[in-house]
Predict the 3D structure of the following.
Amino acid sequence: MKKRLAALVILIAYSAFLIKILVFKDLPIIRIGSLMLNFGGTQKGPANLIPFRTILPFLLGEKGFIIGGINILGNIVLLVPIGLLVPFVYQHMTRKKTIALALAAGFAIEGMQVFLQVGIFDIDDVMLNGLGVMVGYWVFTMLPKLLRSTKSKKIIIASVIGIISSLAVLGMLVYQKTQGPVSFHQAAAIGQAGSADSKGSGYSPNNDPCNGTGGTGQIIAVGKNTITIKRHDGINEIIQLTDQTKIRTATSAIAQSDLKIGDRVTVVVGSMHDEGSTAVAVLVCNSASRQPVK
């Protein structure tokens, strides 16, 4: 009874963590080299009801294998604890019931996003979330075999529950510290922890928003609410700009019309769709003058 109660408490706490991450997209800015990603914020666009329409471009690397890996693996791994914990709480779980739970979890997450108007419905996310639940249940079914091979059954069960609990609590603490709207100071300081410049509270001409990396790429075309950048890998990418997109240099905020061909920029991506990526923020790198596009 105590084990079931402990598992129930952990399940509720982890479910709240999932809602925070997967529904409200309460995520910190992720920096990988010169690429700055933001999977948080409200996402808008048409619903995807066609299976594999979102997954396939990720698998083919059309939007970068790093972005693809984060999206696909993230949607699977985050739901694994659900499939592992539920059988501890409800001891009559079967494979068929687990499939129903997997579908219910996926549709619940996507449905909450639509109902709360904080995201769009994507059938591929339902599939990935459901797969995560199934993987978790498979791990649960393997536990008896592991338990039979050791004398310390109670220790193993307590360890599994303890690890899941620790991960859930740690994740909640980390994301609580990083929650809040996008901040350019936060974005520029990533990767500079411990440096004197990153401890300041503002920008100066000597504080490059791109941290000396040269940015995500160089602007090669400017359109109405769009810019096209040539990335370091040579790929041209169209970036959608909205009224909510924050644009600034090291010293001040600027308007979309101030973006010029030749500017090197770091783009903080908020969402991706067929027409391109939508930017939450665009940071113009420091430079004495605009460089010609090569």
Summary: Residues 173-205 have pLDDT under 50 and may be disordered.
